[in-house]
Design goal:
Length: 326
Amino acid sequence: MDSAGIIAWTRVSVLILAFGLAAWMDHRERRVPNDFWITWAKPAAFLWTLDLMVQSAEWYHYSTAAAMIAYASIAVIGRPTVHDILAGKSMDIIVGFWYAFGLAGIIQGAMLHGSEGPMEVIIGNASADATLWWTIMAVALPIFLVDMAWRMRLIHGGADCKALMWVSIMVPSWNAVPVVWPESMEASTIAMPPAIALLVWGGFAFLVLPFIMIVKNLKEGGGSLKLIWHAERMPLSSVATSHVWLLTTIAEMPDGTKKIIHRTRAPSKSPSKEKLAQSIAILEENSVETVWVTRKFPLLVFLWPAVLPLVLIGGPMALFMPMLGL
């Protein structure tokens, strides 16, 4: 195994370890602190630096990579402000110099390789330095897409957003992924960025969940077909301490009687602790002991096993597009 292969498999090892820890923390506490991503950004930046050294990169390649890391860091440490820099705040001054260094690399790369655009890179007509620079610049795309998805609430969890940005730095291109069976990737002209491919694989993993829930509920006695594929029964006493959406409620009928109703959809916004306590109290007053709930599964729990198909096969588009004759 050459140096590039060692770096690639080290990246995969760090990816699996960090994602496993983040998924465990997100599952238990429903949050992953910013300090976690700051800590694991260090090996990601170190391995990217080693990778660039192996490729005999120029200074502006390192600088452009620093700009991509700076872009992703906004989600964790925010942006420096001119006011704070003039006020002498050390963190803002350091990050300000970091931004300036990254911008210098982007400007230099654009001046040298602007005439060799991404299409030249795709068809293989670009120089080695231009290919490397555009490959680094392409890291901005998944970071931007993930940021927009989070702002538009397509990705709800901040930890999920930061995790995918971290993946963009850890595996900035497919050259950084030691794909075990690369045949489909080699036959594909265009592939989605590794971070986006991981998100898509995680979505496929999420599709397995309804089948698991159906089997689980059938073993426990079944239930409504509208519920058993995404919900489960739980003692009412456990709801307040669990990460779930309560689906069972009490409705007052036109004749004045009360009826237990199980909603089929989780609320679009999680209720406050006070409102949840009120709902539980109403159910207790009506002698309800068991309710239907939907668990709040964090996306990270599905992204972690998605690393396996990412390493074995590569991107999902490269696998499925040939099946569709594309």
